[in-house]
Amino acid sequence: MKKLVIGSLAAVLVTTAALAYETRHPNLRDAYGAAENAIHHIEAAQANNKGLEFGGHAEKAIDALRHAQQELIEADKWNSEHHR
């Protein structure tokens, strides 16, 4: 349960940071959305699994997807800076 609360707080922080930035490159925007969709599916699986966390692997997958989203934002920022 503690991991779920910490994960949820981290999700809010990452989501808040992501909302402050609008991805310009359409493919990177789509990839970001796909990662967000995957996160929602994993969270739904956790909720439907009556609180069992899939041995911690589902939370690790969510963390990896959130990290991927941050990398997509950084990639888009780099692209915007170097291709005007």
Task: Please give the domain count.
Answer: 1
**Uncertain runs:** none
Helix segment tally: 3
Could you tell me the number of beta strands?
0
Q: Which structural class should the secondary elements be placed in? A: mainly alpha
Strand content: under 5%
The largest sheet, given as strand count, sense and whether it forms a barrel, is: none
> Using only CA atoms, what is the Rg?
14 Å
**Mean pLDDT over all positions:** 85
**Fraction of residues in H or I helices:** over 70%
Gross geometry: elongated
Order of helices and strands: HHH
What is the straight-line distance between the termini? Answer: 46 Å
Task: Write a structural description.
The chain has 84 residues and is mainly alpha-helical. The protein has one domain (2-13, 24-82). The protein is 80% helix and 0% strand. It is built from 3 helices and no strands. The chain has helices at residues 2-19, 26-48, 57-82. Helix 1 (2-19) packs parallel to helix 3 and helix 2 (26-48) packs antiparallel against helix 3. The radius of gyration is 14 Å and the shape is elongated. The model has no long low-confidence stretch (mean pLDDT 85).
